[in-house]
Amino acid sequence: MNTSNPNRRDFIKGAGTIAAASTLPLSIVEMAFADPAQSFTFAHISDAHIQHIRGAEFVRNWDRGLIRAVAETNLLQPKPDFVVFGGDLAQLGMKEELDHGAEMLSRLDYPVYPVLGEHDYYLDLGEYWSQLFKREHYYSWDHKGVHFVVLNSILTTDEWTHERWPTARQRMLEMAGLDNPNGSPFMVGEKQRQWLAADLDKVPKDTPVVVFSHSPIQKIYKGWNFWTDDAEEVQALLHPFTTATVVYGHVHQIQYNQIGNISFHAVMATAWPWPYPQAYAQAESQLPKLTVPMNRADPFFERDATGWQFVDLKSGRVSMEYNLYSNTNRTVAYNPETGQPEDSVYQAAGGRIAPQIHY
Ligand SMILES: [Fe+2]
Ligand SMILES: [Fe+2]
Question: How many CB atoms sit inside 10 A of residue 159's CB?
């Protein structure tokens, strides 16, 4: 972590004030470069899962998660340049849910770059989402020396999408289940990979590249779709770059990994935490080897795995500080000596609560 940068110090100081009152997750990303004029921050909020009940009623707990993250983002000093929303704004892709979620996001004082989650997509295949946000399903932009890409990583086969289900709602419900065997593995797909190849072709190879996806662009656990089927093909397009980072939602938990030149960081949800796959005795764990799961006794304690993060991209490498509510703070920083992200505030094994077994 870069503690010698004055911007960083000021930022932490301001953040501490907010952390003291904070119970909800948002991710704060600091881009610090040698030229102070180039330094900037952005925030990342993800997985709000706004859920319609009937009429004007929505699940209040999920609403509150997003409302609070938006309010805290608006209070940040320094002001972030923009906010990324990491997908799963809705629970079942309904217009009511997307409208209500977008209305809450519209209270942000900053531009928002949205990512599609499977919960936003599988009712009408992203049509209303695009209309609402005036965005394509995947896109890129440049900001102060960094190339940012948003991917739609939650696609699957044409047969599954278009032929298998009698109604769009049935398709949505099948994809909404975490461990539903009728779901289908996610993928970016060939058309989008061709677009990405052409997009990255124009970018100098020493430019830091940051990719936002909903599912991990790596293979963690297929049974819960913590998975992207063509992850290796997408990673190959990032390999020519000196530094590349993938920031993803969907898993509702802290994860990190390093594959070649690519650092991977997951962000937390505003709605609820998922347990780690290894907490299930019957499941073979494919959690990235580098990830030290956070110490939590009950993954279903609603605010236990929530918090917010700084990402310091000094020299294009990520240092992420997770500020957790009701749990020990964590810092995952790139270690140039080992060439991978590491827990620099590491919980010794003896102090951790053992994974819980669920049946
Ligand atoms: Fe989610
Ligand atoms: Fe998701």
Answer: 9
